[in-house]
């Protein structure tokens, strides 16, 4: 049996108090080199790791996905649901010494909406404007009564508050030297080398435990991350794959902890983003043929030892919002060939962009072999993840293999990717009926109605297939036995507060 620490029993004993004996340096192996460390524009999941240490949010979520206070101590929703009043934590400063107050929060939220290239805009569509009531009180005035959705989004990058002074001074270069109000301040970044942060002496939570210095080390190959963990060069290694785990079974110096994952792995198909969308976007039968040629269950069994869950929707099959009338499809090569002939492309050829990460490389090769049996040639082109996603935004792709780390509210898994104006809708897929459903789902707090709406949205996406969702992970993290206080989260983000080194 693998040495897994289940989420329910992972609360490890904590060590020394903040400011006590020196904690030294914690080295964390992350899956890839992040894009810009700007909460407004950051897209890669690996960027959330250092950003979470550098930038406190208005709220966080617990391992049970409940909202918990961080920079905002409390909130009150107006009786009509059209505003939310936040009370901010007193005595908080940014790493440049400037006060973290209501005006700074107002500035940040406005920046998230207006900054060129912001990926947070769709997460704040409910917000009309923010009003400063007093230095520690802010009123969020809403366009529609969507307070629950707005609040959960403020527990993600949309709620990371930045220093207005540093933002105005650095402009578009803020992501090269972020200044926030988290427990660690940014020190340096060596591209493809490391991101270094050090504990901020004036952090508001003086009792917080944590190492003095953290180095985030981008290591794409999980085998190399494991070797570095076992040798002691790393103390934490994220995103291990199921096939990595046997190597750690007999190692007395490493534990493996896991948590269910909120997200999904997905092949995005270009349906309408420039000339590269002409082939896969012209006839839904082409996308349906590709879909039917893939055996998700066989892939999960062969590559991931059934530790992941085969899926085909933006929530996993155990989620109440899953559309049970469109389950994970059975593979049907004959039907795939018939659809291709009917669409006029019996010998379909297209190119899939895939990052160098071993898990997606192996899955891409597995899918390539399955598609070939249906007469489909899928060429593979390896690109660094950040480059691949840039090409996705520009429409320079036919298909790309990415993953979404997931959000507690289903809206976070679907709106930004599939609504007509979604900032991460690289396919430029647009369906007015789907948009109407997604907006209604944002507006209701009735769980039964929201479930009905998301099942309707799933039904549309399962038919039109602007992307092929393939599986839902468990997150596996390797942790040195020197580490105390590490708790895995369903959003895959490493919270460094509370971690100590023995």
Automatic annotation (TrEMBL):
Asked if the keyword Hydrolase belongs to this entry, the reply reads no
Cite the SUPFAM superfamilies for this sequence. Periplasmic binding protein-like II
GO MF, one annotated term: peptide transmembrane transporter activity
What the entry lists under Gene3D superfamilies is as follows: Dipeptide-binding Protein, Domain 1, Dipeptide-binding Protein, Domain 3, Periplasmic binding protein-like II
Q: Which InterPro entries match?
A: Peptide/Ni-bd, SBP_5, SBP_5_dom
The UniProt entry's GO biological process terms, in alphabetical order, are: peptide transport
Q: Which GO terms describe its cellular component?
A: ATP-binding cassette (ABC) transporter complex; outer membrane-bounded periplasmic space
Q: A Pfam family matched by this chain, by name?
A: SBP_bac_5
First and last residue of the signal peptide: 1-22
Keywords of the record, alphabetical order, are: Signal
List residues of the Solute-binding protein family domain. 67-421
What does the UniProt entry say about where the protein is found?
A: Periplasm
**Signal keyword on record:** yes
UniProt-listed PANTHER family: D,D-DIPEPTIDE-BINDING PERIPLASMIC PROTEIN DDPA-RELATED, PERIPLASMIC BINDING COMPONENT OF ABC TRANSPORTER
Q: Which family does it belong to?
A: Belongs to the bacterial solute-binding protein 5 family.
Official protein name in the record: Peptide/nickel transport system substrate-binding protein
Species source reads: Humitalea rosea
Q: What is the lineage of its organism?
A: Bacteria, Pseudomonadati, Pseudomonadota, Alphaproteobacteria, Acetobacterales
């Amino acid at each position: 049996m693998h040495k897994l620490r289940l989420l329910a029993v992972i609360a490890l004993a904590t060590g020394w108090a903040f400011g006590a004996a020196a904690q030294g340096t914690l080295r964390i192996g992350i899956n890839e080199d992040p894009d810009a460390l700007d909460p407004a524009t950051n897209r890669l999941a690996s960027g959330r790791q250092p950003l979470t240490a550098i930038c406190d949010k208005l709220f966080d979520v617990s391992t049970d996905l409940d909202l918990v206070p961080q920079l905002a101590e409390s909130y009150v929703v107006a009786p009509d649901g059209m505003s939310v009043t936040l009370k901010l934590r007193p005595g908080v400063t940014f790493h440049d010494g400037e006060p973290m107050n209501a005006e700074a929060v107002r500035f940040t939220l406005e920046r998230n909406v207006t900054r060129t290239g912001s990926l947070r805009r769709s997460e704040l569509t409910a917000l009309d404007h923010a009003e400063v009531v007093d230095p520690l009180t802010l009123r969020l005035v809403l366009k529609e009564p969507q307070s629950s959705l707005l609040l959960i989004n403020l527990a993600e990058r949309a709620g990371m508050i930045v220093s207005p002074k540093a933002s105005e001074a650095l402009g578009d270069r803020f992501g090269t030297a972020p200044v926030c109000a988290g427990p660690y301040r940014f020190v340096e970044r060596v591209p493809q080398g490391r991101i270094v942060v050090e504990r901020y002496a004036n952090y508001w939570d003086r009792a917080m435990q944590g190492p003095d210095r953290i180095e985030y080390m981008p290591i794409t190959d999980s085998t190399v991350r494991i070797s570095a963990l076992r040798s002691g060069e790393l103390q934490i290694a994220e995103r291990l794959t199921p096939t990595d785990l046997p190597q750690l079974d007999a190692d007395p110096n490493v534990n493996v902890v896991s948590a269910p994952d909120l997200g999904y792995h997905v092949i995005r198909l270009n349906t309408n983003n420039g000339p590269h969308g002409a082939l896969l976007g012209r006839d839904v039968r082409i996308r349906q043929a590709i879909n039917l040629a893939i055996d998700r269950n066989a892939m999960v069994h062969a590559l991931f030892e059934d530790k992941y869950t085969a899926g085909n929707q933006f929530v996993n099959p155990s989620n109440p919002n899953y559309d049970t009338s469109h389950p994970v499809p059975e593979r049907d090569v004959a039907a795939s060939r018939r659809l291709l002939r009917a669409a006029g492309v019996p010998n379909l050829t297209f190119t899939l962009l895939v990052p160098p990460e071993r898990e997606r490389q192996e899955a891409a090769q597995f899918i390539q072999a399955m598609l070939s049996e249906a007469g489909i040639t899928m060429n593979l082109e390896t690109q660094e993840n950040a480059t691949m996603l840039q090409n996705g935004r520009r429409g320079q792709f036919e298909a790309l293999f990415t993953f979404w780390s997931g959000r507690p509210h289903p809206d976070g898994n679907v709106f930004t990717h599939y609504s007509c104006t979604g900032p991460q809708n690289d396919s430029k897929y647009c369906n007015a009926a789907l948009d109407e459903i997604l907006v209604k789902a944002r507006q209701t707090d009735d769980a039964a109605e929201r479930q009905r709406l998301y099942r309707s949205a799933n039904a549309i996406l399962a038919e039109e297939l602007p992307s092929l969702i393939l599986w839902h992970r468990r997150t596996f993290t390797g942790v040195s036995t020197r580490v105390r206080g590490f708790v895995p989260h369903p959003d895959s983000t490493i919270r460094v507060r509370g971690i100590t080194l023995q």
